[in-house]
Amino acid sequence: MIIVIIGLIVLLVIGVVVVNGVQQHKQKQEQEKRAQAAKFKAIIDESDELILNLSSMPPSPVLVTILNRRSFNAANSMLQLTPDSKAVKQRVQELEAQLKASSEQSSAAPADENFVLPDNEQQLVSILQTIKKLRAMLKSEQAKGALDAQTYSQQDLRLDSMQLKIGVESLLSRGQKAYSKEMLGSARQYFEKALQTLNNHAHPSEYTQTKKEQIEDQLEEITKSLANTNAQDAAKKAKDEEDDLDMLFQPKKKW
Hints:
- The chain is mainly alpha-helical.
- Helix 6 (about 185-200) runs antiparallel to helix 7.
- The protein has seven helices and no strands.
- It has a domain at about 10-110.
């Protein structure tokens, strides 16, 4: 009898351990699901934010399509984790419609390459941040196999050109302001930095060549202005020294 009781107790303990193990396993699976769902939601939120920020940049239907597809894929993955969620099902349908619309637009309308830089410094910083995020997104999508190599290369090069233009034009704007205030040394530093940025760029273009020529002409003009200024300063200094000598050796007046 005692052996039976002990056996029952052992079985009960084993049963409790098994039940606890199963519960812990289920809890772990639920935690992993929640973590994955949060990751997919973050991808969708980031894509929505990037699409919104694209409004301050030249229109690019291809980028919008890539971002919509990224969101659609993430929502589909969420639906696999939570197949009974009506909210996720509805979100998938919405993103599918957005993807279809942007795909049709991207095939019909080419990207706009005209890019007029805003005067506001904060807007420029915001655009630069958006470009960096977009380039990181493109690289990630290409690494996952969600984006073909040719599209990745084309879009990344386009963003790289925008990033270059913002950097160069910002330096040139500061250089022109310094030059207009006759701060020739500061102006030269800005122009030289802009020229170095262009020389270090890995993808020469008509823009880089044109800007190099403009900057080189501007630097030559600054060099001439500095030479004239130095000559004038030297002449003034010599005149002042001559006046001092004349004052020193002029006949003393008798009182």
